[in-house]
Amino acid sequence: MSATEVLGRFRAEVGAAVTRARRAAGEIGERNAKLRERTRELAAQARERRVEPGSQATPADVREAASGFRTDRGLPVEQLPDAAELTTSQPPVVAEPVPSTTLGSAAVAGPSGQLPRVSDDDEDFSQSRILY
Predict the structure, then answer these.
(1) CA 89 to chain centroid
(2) DSSP code of residue 113
(3) CB contact at 8 A, 73 and 105
(4) Which of 23, 33, 101, 132 has its CA 20 to 30 A from that of 108?
(5) pLDDT in tens, 85-119
(6) DSSP one-letter string for 15-69
(7) CA–CA gap between residue 116 and residue 108 (Å, rounded)
(8) pLDDT, tens digit, 9 for 90 and up, residues 39-70
(9) pTM for the full model?
(10) Any idea what DSSP says for residue 118?
């Protein structure tokens, strides 16, 4: 087999692998978008205290793990009613809206578990969340 043939075969295999990877990434992106949309719908139903017949509540340990994950990473955690509260026939309590949080607005602990040092110096703020 000549070098040209080997190179051509290699390029074809790489092209096929890239095509498969793009297809898989597209399918995963679609699945994630559907999951995000369903999560938004469920959160809206919980806020409005609407419960679909036959719907199952998320177990308390799963809710705790999810809120702990978000809290550990400095992400906002919206307080939604428990399943028991949703099934009561009381009118919904109007709560103050949760302030929107811009991603990256709060410092999060790095791999060492340390937060970046707080400083009034804004000369090189871009590195404060990366190198600490």
Answers:
(1) 32
(2) S
(3) no
(4) 33
(5) 666 554 555 556 555 555 555 666 666 666 656 66
(6) HHHHHHHHHHHHHHHHHHHHHHHHHHHHHHHHHTT---TT--PPPHHHHHHHHHH
(7) 8
(8) 888 888 878 877 766 667 778 888 889 889 98
(9) 0.42
(10) P
Q: Is 79 helix (H, G, I), strand (E, B) or coil?
A: coil
Q: Are 86 and 46 a contacting pair, CB within 8 Å?
A: yes
Nearest-CA neighbor of 108 among 125, 91, 128?
A: 128
| Structure tokens given for 60 | 């308390």
Residue 29: Cβ-neighbour burial (10 angstroms; 0-12, 13-18, 19+): exposed
C-beta atoms surrounding 71 within 10 Å: 11
